[in-house]
Design a protein that fits this description.
The protein has about 625 residues and is an alpha/beta fold. Helices cover about 50% and strands about 10% of the residues. Strand 2 (about 300-305), helix 16 and strand 3 form a beta-alpha-beta unit. Helix 3 (about 40-50) runs parallel beside helix 5 and helix 10 runs antiparallel to helix 11 (about 175-180). The longest helix has 20 residues, at about 190-210. The chain is globular and about 90 Å long.
Length: about 625
């Protein structure tokens, strides 16, 4: 006769064999026989968590803790589950309880650090990693996560040392990959950029030669090469090499949806299209995608929104309402792949790839006959299961096809249908004095070292102007950039004011108050340029060699206003100088922008051009 221990053992064996359905069934049978066993309920919670059934997992963890409130392992596993569900504060509380019962649990300190890092409390995360190392000096994940935190703060030398320690202790594939992908977030110089790109390629070559195999890129790597795109160089070869390594080393990435293994049926009445991202809320990506999702005619399209975000705000609500179906995907590649495959999509549309790891690793699967990506992160992916990159003829330079591993689609207009922001029209007098206010509102990682020489000349030539930048996400970023400016600009750098980070209302007032917005070369503004032009504030831009440095140019072309488009660095300095010294010209330019900006907002032609592309892409299969 099978008793409770038999069901418990069989459930654990099924779980170890990755048979989640069988494991859950056996564990539930064990609970039915003896619901007062805290260990069985806790193990069922772990299995449900791994299967993506987070609500049911929470029930089991709470039931286990009612029975036995003194088990640090249950608090630890409960913390893991809450962290994966996005409830970071509650997860921290569970780790604190686990550590209070067992201060020597290095993994609990380590995971607590990971949560603090997600909450942008990176300095506190480093303290947690140090405590993990104190608890167990040979606990390699703490060194690796310590390195990740240092990398996030821009300390590449510290990160390099701690990745080396992690590799020395365990030599795991994930640490080797993270070490290979290490790049400075605020580069000291162009030489440092070239040094680390060369380092990346050399380490990739070694990884490829070693015939490595690993299974879970999310947990073992958990990052992308995000900073690469900000170097102002052709990334195609490196992106393809990185993707080739992942295909070789992680066979589980190469998943094919059953409906893609046979010839697609084009007889269905509506095209089934899914839009996927981790940023479908009040984020640049959500704002860029909302109107396209809403505007596709439901007579011709069945629209699904596939979101990896647990954030709920007014923009996520708009996107939920705009979609025919809104699916919250779990933080599990295997479950997410199966969920998307079950939808049997004709087209899978990635709003962005490269900002975070989930959608990057998801893109290696074939989940729809047509898979495309657009400019949410404006650089080629290098992934051969991405068929198309949707861009614009207005932003791409001649020969741009050579910079993409995907087939480049150049629409006639900017590929995003954007609504103008709802400004209240009020400026903020305390944000400026009597001098011209020059603002560069870009994220600090967009400040390429070559921009320093341009800023130095602008500061030198416009002594009466006030210059404001927005501080970084971390104080360390601001400090690194200030040190670089002091080295490249000398005393002139003292005139730059780093504005504390602003909320949405304060930011809107700043760009309305500004006389001039400076665009960063190589990787220019996207949504920031839309917002500045909506406020009639001129954006001075120097188009780069790649689309990511030419979005502002594209918007100006669409408006047929090219007054602020510089031909070279000298011209950029001259345009800024003329606007700083001539108030009449500034007023005239504002009026010109005001009269033409309607051409870049609510451009309904974007929907028609994308529909045309969708239909042609399906016909070409």
């Amino acid at each position: 006769m099978v008793d409770v221990d038999d069901y418990h053992r069989q459930g654990l064996e099924a779980f170890q064999a990755d048979n989640f359905t069988g494991a859950i069934a056996k564990m539930e049978q064990a609970v039915a026989l003896n619901g007062s066993r805290a260990d069985i309920r806790a193990n069922l919670g772990v299995i449900l968590h791994r299967a993506g059934e987070l609500d049911r997992a929470e029930e089991q963890f709470r039931a286990s803790l009612v029975i036995n409130p003194d088990d640090p392992t249950v608090y630890y596993n409960f913390g893991l589950m809450l962290g994966d569900s996005g409830r970071l504060g509650e997860a921290l509380s569970q780790y604190d309880k686990s550590i209070a019962l067992d201060a020597g649990n290095a993994a609990a300190h380590n995971n607590r650090g990971n949560l603090l890092k997600k909450l942008k409390r990176v300095e506190e995360a480093i303290v947690a990693y140090n405590r993990a190392i104190e608890a167990d000096p040979n606990f390699a994940p703490a060194y690796r996560n310590f390195a990740d935190a240092e990398e996030a703060l821009g300390d590449v030398q510290g990160a390099q040392k701690n990745y080396a320690r992690a590799i020395g202790l365990r030599g795991d594939v994930g640490s080797r990959i993270r070490d290979a992908l290490l790049l400075p977030i605020i580069p000291e110089s162009k030489d440092q950029i070239l040094e680390y790109r060369n380092r990346l390629e050399n380490r990739l070559d070694k990884l490829l030669d070693d015939d490595l195999i690993f299974e879970d890129p999310l947990s073992q790597v958990g990052a992308t090469n995000f900073a690469l795109a900000y170097h102002g160089l052709d990334d195609k070869a490196i992106q393809e090499k990185i993707a080739r390594f992942y295909r070789q080393a992680c066979p589980s990435l190469t998943y094919v949806s059953p409906h893609c293994e046979s010839s697609p049926s084009l007889a269905r009445e509506k095209i089934k299209i899914g839009f996927v991202s981790s940023f479908l809320y009040e984020h640049t990506i959500g704002k860029l995608m909302h109107q396209l999702i809403e505007g596709l005619p439901r007579s011709r399209f069945e629209v699904q929104v596939l979101s990896f975000s647990n954030i709920h705000d007014q923009w996520s609500e708009k996107l939920t309402q705009a979609a025919g179906s809104f699916i919250c995907l779990p933080n599990s590649l295997s479950v997410a792949r199966e969920t998307i495959a079950a939808a049997e999509l004709d087209i899978l549309y990635y709003a962005d790839i490269g900002i975070e790891p989930m959608t990057y690793f998801l893109s290696f699967s074939r989940l729809a006959p047509v898979q495309c990506v657009t400019w949410g992160h404006p650089v080629t992916t290098g992934v051969d299961t991405l068929d198309y990159f949707i861009s614009s003829d207005l932003t791409e330079p001649e020969g741009a096809e050579n910079f993409y591993s995907e087939k480049l689609i150049k629409l006639e207009s900017i590929p995003s249908l954007v609504a103008p922001p709802d400004f209240n029209g009020e400026t903020s007098p305390d944000m400026r004095g009597n001098s011209p206010l020059v603002v560069c509102p870009q994220s600090l990682f967009k400040y390429h070292p070559e921009f320093d020489a341009i800023l130095r000349l602008i500061l030198r030539d416009n002594k009466n102007a006030e210059f404001r930048l927005i501080a970084g996400n971390f104080d360390a970023w601001t400090n690194l950039l200030q040190k670089r400016f002091a080295r490249t600009m000398g005393e002139l750098a003292d005139r730059i004011i780093f504005q504390p980070r602003l909320d949405r209302e304060q930011y809107a007032k700043l760009i309305q108050t500004a006389d001039i917005i400076l665009d960063t070369p190589h990787f220019c503004g996207g949504m920031t340029t839309f917002e500045a032009l909506a406020a009639d504030t001129p954006v001075v831009t120097l188009p780069g060699d790649f689309m990511r440095g030419r979005v502002s140019l594209g918007l100006y072309k669409q408006m047929n206003v090219l007054d602020c488009v510089a031909a070279d660095a000298e011209d950029y300095v001259g345009i800024v100088g003329e606007l700083c010294s001539n108030e009449v010209n500034r007023i005239d330019l504002r009026e010109k922008i005001h009269g033409t900006k309607n051409k870049i907002f609510n451009d309904q032609g974007v929907i028609g051009s994308q529909i045309k592309f969708f239909e042609q892409a399906l016909a070409d299969i």
